[in-house]
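Purpose: get a first structural picture of the assembly so the mutagenesis plan has something to point at.
Setup: two entries, given in the order below. No constraints added.
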Amino acid sequence: MNAIEQAIAPKARLRLISGNHACALGAVAAGCRFFAGYPITPSSEVAERLARLLPQVDGVFVQMEDEIASIAAVIGASMGGVKALTATSGPGFSLKQENIGYAAGAEIPCVIVNVMRGGPSTGMPTRPAQGDIMQSRWGSHGDYPMIVLAPASVREIYDETIRAFALAETLRTPVVVLYDQVIAQLTETVDLGDTEDLARTERKWASGSRADYQPYATGADAIPAMSRPGAGYRVHTTGLNHAENGFPTQHPEVVARNLGRLLTKFEKHRDAIDSWQTIACDDAEVLIVAIGISARAATRAVELCRARGVRAGLFRPITLWPFPETALREAAARVRAVLVPEMNAGQMSLEVERILGGKRVDAIHRYNGEPITPAEIAERAESLAKAVVAKGKSK
Amino acid sequence: MIVDSAPSFDIREYLRLEMMPHFLCPGCGHGIALRALLWAIHELGIDKDKLAVVSGIGCAGRLSAYIDANTFHVTHGRPLAYATGLALARPDLHVVVITGDGDCLAIGGNHLIHACRRNLKLTCLMLNNEIYGMTGGQVSPTTSETMLTSTTPLGNAEPNFDACALAAAAGASFVGREGTRHVPKLKELIRAGLEHPGFAFVEVLSDCTEIFGRKNELGSSAEMVLRQKSELRPSAYRDTVDTPFRSNEMPTGILTKTERPEYGAAYRKAAAAQRAGKAAANKGGA
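Result (structure tokens, whole complex):
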């Protein structure tokens, strides 16, 4: 036991753990009982923790032969009715995309953790990046809905992993938990004591007679009830475009109706899906929009700006996709300019520009493996504030 | 003796009749293989509610939709990986994989060798018709040498896989091969595979008459079936029968059968032992 652990030992609820460790604990707390994965830096600790944890709760851990097999096994386990997780990083996330599309299209709940590292290709395995923001939403082919959660602290990884399972199960969808290498391997003291009684969210299961059951027919909630193998429904599941009865179809009206329902099925559930944090937005003249480690630097940058008399605020999407655009519009309603610091060559800034059409959106784009510092963000926010004020005066 | 159960076997009890007519070409062997599978399932009395059939992409992959069971038509090459998750999560289900030679040996080859090695209880039925039929007749890993396909207009110059030798080399505890030429024998082989307490790999020689047969002037479907024993699928590697390429004479029947610990049961046993050990330690400690 080291000095820190000794210091916190009397406070039994406190734990000193990494982000990846918190993810594994969150998964078990959410009722996850199946993990399939493949070793990849910097996400392997999620697998290593669950290799120990899952057998203790009568769950199953399996290391598969590759990344594709891992997501396939996870979807297979979920088809069997068991909450399932896989964790990976950039190259593995790319390999999983086809089957993530299958899970989205066939509406099989599952959770995929993607720890972002430098890219493209093998990139910088031990360095942070935020280059998978667009891929996490659009990585698979064709049109499909997707939920992506972007925690920014160890404790938030725990909470958002639990929420990922709740959303995946209730909305019958894959959910990506997206965080960067810094948050993944950062070690923080967290209090998990107040989460022990968290209600586990269960899937919407089919009930009633087999004759009346249509696997993809829905009520007003747009979410179809799933049948558990063995319960007597004996349905067909396919990645082909399918009708309400689950069987393949190419009938234009039937495809349009069913795919249309799939693509809009989150609309009535945005209250449960959307999540964001705002800091000092009420009187802000410059709004910083950031996620993950960049948001943590931006939080400090807001303080630095305020100390210098620059009214900066922070909007941090916790649900990254679907982007909480209504909340962003509200937070940005009175600001004069927006700054998006992100560890890529320009991804979230595009979405922010789209949502805030016409508003000045500047960005700090960093892709050298070094996190963006609070001082850099504060400096840019300050110069941006001065520029828009000067522009306002010159009019 | 071997056809004893035939009178009680009504295939319609195991089919989704609303899916008929099926989409297989006239003369295709896949329907015969499907019948043999369902016959074996009938003989074993497997509950349809507890039967899960996972299939990949291609002509073979489409068969799952016709079976009145829990059926999963998944992505190309990955049915074994999906089935691994399903069987590990739900050991109460009887999981059968239906795959083709391209699905299983090309895009899904990695999953096959590791499924053989892992020895999870699964029955993998690989329907080998030597061709990518669904996509119009391209060369596959089992296309015999010199054969014409839409992507080998000069004749196939690649040696073909002996899928059974590959599965056995990868550690499969049950390996067998039979052709659609002898349905009762095929049923017996599939039945033995279904009963095997581990990973069972069953290769079914099935003919693609419309595309492969026509392209190579192999005659009618009846003539193709008659060739299944030895005339078809020649190989330049016939002198090296120990390599994972086809010899001219293809052995049929059960080729490998060994007893090895089943992966799912072994995992759960170890986990239960650890939990029991911890519980005992906690009791002692208290």
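The longest helix of chain B spans residues 263-285.
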